[in-house]
Specification:
The protein is mainly alpha-helical. It has 22 helices and no strands. It has one domain. The relative contact order is 0.15.
Amino acid sequence: MTAFVIIGVLVLLILGVPIAIALGGASMAWVYITQRVPDFIIMQRLVGGVNSFPLLAVPFFIFAGNLMNAAGLTTHIFGFARSLVGWMRGGLGHVNVGASIIFAGMSGAAVADAGGLGTIEIKAMTDEGYDRDVSVAITAASSTIGPIIPPSLPLVVYGVMAQASIGRLFIAGIVPGLLMGLSLMVLIRFFAHRRGYPVDAKFSVTNVFRTLWKGLPALFTPILIIGGIALGIFTPTEAAIAASAYSLLLGVVVYRSISFKQFVAVSLDTLETTAVILFIVAGASIFAWILTVMRVPAMFGEMLFTISENPIILLLLINAVLFVIGFFMETIAAITIMVPVLLPVALSIGIDPVHLGIFMILNLMIGLLTPPVGMVLYVLSRVARMPFEDCAKATAVFIIPLVIVLLLVTFIPQLSLWLPDLIFN
């Protein structure tokens, strides 16, 4: 019956059925065939899967990110990043990464980063003589920083599933996110020297302060979110509401760039995206519950322990499983399915749930850069008007530094745990 449910989900996905319906449909078929539980349990699990206060952060962070894109705040972010790191060889490549790090503190979604900043970044780089494939690759790789540095929609969902502190998860993502940016900048430096990419502009303190002043209202957003959580002023959910209110204030009052028509469009887009995410969470919660009932997590753990009891080998195996899952499954669905399976194994070898959450999300973010799913690649393929296959080929080399950071974060827990331990203990 375990094989029936899993194969059923895979068959439905191959047939093109939406992932939420595939997960829920296969699970409901199991209930009707086995008659092991009453039918109403399905509805209870559906509702229970999304009936969570922390999940309220999801629509508000999506709303805040959409408002920032609509208000044109990405232009100010790009300008400030350009004044900071544009003087380096391959300057616009470094600006691309720097802007993603800043925007990561606002949106919490890789696709929002790729769609919002991607248009500006790719155009600016190609206008300055950068190869289009390299421009797309840097933009794609840097967008994966978004869900690691707080706020992060995947970390919210992981925190709900693993019953881990979302505040600690948010703070734990800061150092790994900065390491991702640094590793990408090292590779960009190599490409810049090899292909002769220019310095964007000379460093000017005056220009830094000018762009900082112009973009200060927008740049205050990550301070509001991260600072509020770290100081205990907000819960992550309250921080999401504050970020939405602040973004609306910027777009309507400060920059006056959001019309009523745009506000309605942003609201409808937020409703649609939120509905899709919560529908996936609901369907996956039934599937995860059935896997638990059938002792799949226990059997999976036993299987891993038959291979090796060495924590290093087990961590490599966990990462290998996540890496393969990321190729074929959307991030939120992968989290809701894999957390109940992997968490017991991680706890049994002494892995902190916060540490597991960080390297799990980082691993799944790499999946956004790999076909056949590769959501970031699909977005940038449309933005750059470049074939999907060419985007995937160009981005492949930039996966290498991200994998190196993934291994560092996996095997050096303090890279993710040091900062939350310092703040919350």
